[in-house]
Amino acid sequence: MPMDLYYVPGSAPCRAVLLTARALNLNLNLKLVDLHHGEHLKPEFLKINPQHTVPTLVDDDLIIYESRAIMTYLVNKYGKGSSLYPEDPKARALVDMRLNYDLGTLYNRFADYFYPHLFYGAPADKDKLAKVEDALKLLDSFLEGQKYVAGPNLTLADLSIIAGVSSFEASDIDFKKYANVKRWYETVKTTAPGYQEANEKGLDAFKALAENMLKK
């Protein structure tokens, strides 16, 4: 029986989960959540996820929210031995470190800078933008001499980070001025299984939303 994934196509965390599922050749039963009309706040969804967030995965009697927890769960259960989330403790620790950098620094700073401007019309904050640039400089340094963010192989860290970094295309942040980031970005776009379907389509939806919102 396929797992249910409650999601929004434009959401970077949702796209990261979709990329993981494609890399593992898993079929998910996709359930669109209409955030605009408050579907995530309805009692039936709150019963599943009291944090009322997407993505949310339901696998039989297990419910998981938070994208990186979902991603690691999928590999642990359905991708034993996969280099996406290596079993070697040192290699896995590096992937975990990059995932936490994405959660706590890179994507967090992007959201803190761009989303108030996008959704609430707040003026762009130069100090917050500078923090995003600092996070990108870190990413560029991680990639010095490395094909992927956690070593020579594509991992969950790449899938999580590219879902977020690709969203920068909807903003005024020029991440491609960082040579290592630009090289990595083009590499992952061509090596992540099902990238077009799992990330590009949702990214186009996010970019269209941003364009419309910023016109208001």
Automatic annotation (TrEMBL):
Q: Pinpoint the GST N-terminal domain residues.
A: 1-82
Database matches in InterPro entries: Glutathione-S-Trfase_C-like, Glutathione-S-Trfase_C_sf, Glutathione_S-Trfase, Glutathione_S-Trfase_N, GST_C, Thioredoxin-like_sf
What the entry lists under Pfam families is as follows: GST_C (PF00043), GST_N_3 (PF13417)
SUPFAM superfamilies (alphabetical) = GST C-terminal domain-like (SSF47616), Thioredoxin-like (SSF52833)
Source organism, top-level taxon? Eukaryota
Record CDD domains: GST_C_Delta_Epsilon, GST_N_Delta_Epsilon
Describe the subunit structure. Answer: Homodimer.
State the protein's name: Uncharacterized protein
What species is this protein from? Pieris macdunnoughi
